[in-house]
Amino acid sequence: MTFIEVVDLSNDDERGELDVEVIKLKPHLVRSTLQSDKNSKVQLSKHQMLKTMYSRHESEVESPNVSRTSHSMLDQRQSPMENACLSSTLSMSSAPICRQFWKAGNYNNALGSKVALQNGKNYLQVHPMFLHSNATSHKWAFGAIAELLDNAIDEIQNGATFVAVDKILNPRDGNPALLIQDDGGGMGPDTMRQCMSFGFTVKKSKSAIGQYGNGFKTSTMRLGADVIVFSRHLNNGILTQSIGLLSYTFLRRTNCDRIVVPMVHYEYNTSTGMLDFLHGKEHFMSNLLMLLQWSPYATESELLDQFNDIGSHGTKVIVYNLWFNDDGVTELDFNKDPQDICISGDTRKIETLPSLKSINEQHIGNRFQYSLRVYLSILYLRIPESFKLILRGEVVEHHNIADDLKFPEFILYEPHSSGIMEGQVITTIGFLKEAPDVSIHGFCVYHRNRLILPYFLTPSRNTPGKLELL
């Protein structure tokens, strides 16, 4: 009887530790995994497993300060492995059942999270529908992108110098996918598991934006049905490469009743000059088979090629099967401006005099709602000069909203709780330089250096329902 092993990362053990369980999919789930529908067949052919040879001197790997390069650190060489069925001949990954995000969470049954026993202890088994419902916390697609950028900003303390956002094409079907890549410290196998699980975080810094270990899942699932992550990590001379797949499509198509995440890990062997797979051959092969079936890449060679531009350390996130809007087009518009990513059909209509319409529509207070470049320019209050936000190959120019004000006043805000002052914040308040021709007002609230409420309107205490500044 055939079984395929995958890693279940939805467990919440009572001890609060990450507990990775190897589960076995039943044969009918294996069959559904190996075919896109009842009429299509998948043939698995024997394929030589790719091992990789380090292209630089061994001492460079042993040093934690390997310089970043645009070339691959690893030159790929083939070596035979018997009975290694590693390639998928499926021409296209199965599309989500529904490509519209706000309708994709509809299930025909009432399955949900449930409690199961593992090693005599209770643990939470989370149903895949939670991935979608959890992502509905993001009403706005740009807010989801910002969550992913926060992870890169938090990596500045580990030497990150850039985060790049771009469009790439899914090699399976030619459809656009969203790429987010940074040159931070990367993730080792354990950190990768925590990233793709729920409620785990290793961020201890008080300045870190991410705190709760949930942002990656909510943001990626809000942008598309599937995400694949590539990360290279160098620590104490040990080089690892990890690949993980969080696929709503896979979970729906195989009728999984829990969230499972196919994942493979490699470690560079300084003795042989090769990449060794971790966690045993059977475990590695079963997870790799899932990756080849449901990711945009049909061979192990194509998977490993994604590390070519990562350098000595860093992370690459690719969100594919992007969601559609109600008009049946991708929610993210890559065609309107080749140097920008826009939200399809979301240009805000301005109610004003015809002579003032253009100046209002072009103001940053309106454009940030549908232009990612404008939104990123105000997303962070301060950015180190050594760090760059890059959108579609062009650096995003930072913009300080306070510079848009005339007649500014600086007010010291001292929030109190139970009679104890919690902190002090200097608030800048003023009029837009274009006022009164531009009718835009509200508070731009930053928390931990990050914009969380752009142009937020507050109701007047004296006039219920009327929106004006307090």
In short:
With 470 residues, the chain is of the alpha+beta class.
Can you offer a commentary on this structure?
This protein is of the alpha+beta class. Helix 3 (129-135) packs across helix 6 and helix 4 (141-154) packs across helix 6 (215-223). The radius of gyration is 24 Å and the shape is globular. It has a 9-stranded mixed beta sheet. It has a two-stranded antiparallel ribbon with strand order 1-2. A two-stranded antiparallel sheet has the order 3-4. The protein starts with a strand and ends in a 14-residue tail after the last strand. Among the domains are: 128-322, Heat Shock Protein 90; 332-456, no CATH class. It is built from 12 helices and 23 strands. It is found in: Nucleus. InterPro entries: HATPase_C_sf, MORC_ATPase, Morc_S5.
